[in-house]
Amino acid sequence: MLAQHHQGQVTVPRLVAQLQAIGVSISKRQIMRLLIAGQEGFLTGWAPKATNRDVLRAGLETARWVTVDDTGARHQGANGVCTQIGNDDFAWFGTTNSKSRLNFLDLLRAGHTDYVVNNAALTYMRQHALAGPVIAALAGHAETHFADRAAWQAHLDRLGITQPTVTPDPVRVATEGALWGSVQAHDFLRDTVIVSDDAGQFAVGQHALCWVHAERLVHKLDTFTDAQHAAQQRVRDLIWTFYADLKVYRTDPTPRRRRQLRARFDRIFRRRTGFATLDRRLARLHANKAELLAVLDHPDVPLHTNGSERDIRCHVTKRKVSGGTRSDDGRNCRDAFLGVAKTCAKLGIAFWDYLGSRLAVPGQPVVPPLPDLVRCRGQPA
Hints:
Blueprint: H1 2-7, H2 12-21, H3 28-36, H4 40-44, H5 52-62, E1 65-75, E2 78-86, E3 91-96, H6 101-108, E4 115-116, H7 119-127, H8 132-140, E5 145-146, H9 149-159, H10 170-185, E6 193-196, E7 206-209, H11 211-219, H12 226-251, H13 255-269, H14 276-287, H15 289-292, H16 294-297, H17 306-322, H18 328-347, H19 351-358, H20 370-378
Parallel strand pairs: 1-6, 6-7
Antiparallel strand pairs: 1-2, 2-3, 4-5
Helix pairs in contact: 5-20, 6-10, 7-10, 11-12, 12-13, 13-14
């Protein structure tokens, strides 16, 4: 039932019909219990067979890059968002009520609840224009590690940081910084590049942008004259030719080629076409030069987020077939098993064998813990 429901996308009513058709006397409620109850080991891990949460931790510790994406999700009758994090070795899903940067940073802690004020946190706060006196108050305090949100909020109250009503919001920026400090303190994303579609919540750490989404800004531009259409097509041709050359660079990176591509990027995105709206789009893309050309310094980083788009499709299919979830356990099981199934596929493991090994089914092959396999795949060759 676990394999059919989570990998085969078979609904609970169809499972009931199948089992009753072969003579098994079982109800819908009993199937729901079998699918959800007692699955904590798959969610948070149990020694020595750690799973979903520890897969994320292993990925964040060892990945040279990850791609991220999100999609809508329904839970308890309310709209939410499911965030995907992964690469060629693992996939992880988490459904929450928000798609803010605070939410994304919280997910990147991979189950840890602490807030940390360290060098990474202070650097983040400076980069996001937190007021100097606030940074000084946080940096100068003896206490730098806080166990949970309540302890962190009490610390901000003691320092008087919650009082000012200014822009940017000092509480929000300080909290984002402390979350990023926690991510770094747990050795997550140390030298990892995060590749996204330019959604603002994902712009943390070493960040790169998807070229497919970038070109879409030009592709979806409305044109009204032949001259505007010709200018648009000319720019699109230049962008895709440049993209093809970036793919070639990834296979054989050289300093000389890197300099040439940087100069060529400037020529493409600083050009003036006479089509004012197109020129503004090009200027916007040129402002993202560092993130679009992250591949020049990190040739292993992908130029797109197609991997995340493929991974999150299973969640979209699940949403269309089964709608939303009602209980927190149901939501967590859905996310965990979808992530584990995707990770198994990327590691070349049959999901059926993985379930049999974890549930100690006699005669099933022994499958090593997924976090160990992810760590092995993430090690340098």
